[in-house]
């Protein structure tokens, strides 16, 4: 465990920036916990996650705008999701950009939908930057203030580390079954 913490101290900010290109939730929460332990600077972690998310979202929109044909071919399986995101973009506009940061699975599709549409990229950049700042502050502070509970849980796990492989295996099987059930329901509804 100490080796992991040491590695995160050395490479944490770089990993956080790269991880924040896409989602970034888990990375930012981990950075908040590491900040509570005194291993990372909370404000720097929030800033880096925010910058990574701004760059990642804008890069997706930019690529979708100027590499539309190639991306549509690559994302052929996700055509319906992208179409739904475009409908939501027309219906909810700016609010979708702001709140999509908190919706897992939609967060990546909204910049793609914006790139595929005629939405102004400069306007998207400004709104996206604002929503990324809010997202990074909220998630980073939640990770920081929830860290005492997580640290207590990790200490209990460390005391009974021989049980962890079984717990992880059961959790993995449970997640697989849950995702399979949700996927079946989603396919039936489409």
From TrEMBL:
> What's an example GO cellular component term for this entry?
plasma membrane
Would the keyword Transmembrane be found if you checked this record's keyword annotation? yes
Q: Does the keyword ATP-binding apply?
A: no
Stretches that traverse the bilayer = 12-36, 42-66, 87-104, 124-147, 159-182
**The entry's keywords:** Membrane, Transmembrane, Transmembrane helix
Domain VTT positions: 28-144
Q: What is this protein called?
A: VTT domain-containing protein
**From what organism does this protein derive?**
Helicobacter hepaticus (strain ATCC 51449 / 3B1)
Upper lineage is:
Bacteria, Pseudomonadati, Campylobacterota, Epsilonproteobacteria, Campylobacterales
């Amino acid at each position: 465990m100490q080796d992991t913490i040491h590695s995160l101290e050395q490479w944490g900010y770089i990993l956080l920036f790269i991880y924040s290109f896409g989602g970034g939730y888990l990375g930012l929460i981990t950075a908040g916990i590491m900040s509570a332990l005194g291993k990372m600077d909370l404000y720097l972690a929030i800033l880096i996650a925010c910058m990574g998310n701004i760059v990642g979202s804008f890069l997706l929109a930019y690529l979708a705008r100027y590499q539309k044909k190639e991306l549509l071919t690559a994302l052929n399986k996700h055509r319906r999701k992208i179409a739904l995101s475009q409908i939501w973009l027309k219906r909810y506009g700016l609010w979708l950009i702001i709140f999509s940061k908190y919706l897992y699975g939609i967060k990546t599709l909204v910049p793609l939908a914006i790139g595929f549409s005629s939405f102004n990229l400069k306007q998207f950049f400004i709104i996206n930057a604002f929503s990324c700042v809010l997202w990074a502050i909220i998630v980073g502070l939640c990770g920081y203030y929830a860290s005492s509970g997580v640290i207590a849980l990790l200490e209990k796990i460390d005391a009974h580390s021989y049980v962890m492989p079984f717990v992880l295996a059961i959790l993995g099987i449970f997640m697989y079954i849950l995702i399979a059930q949700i996927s079946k329901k989603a396919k039936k509804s489409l």
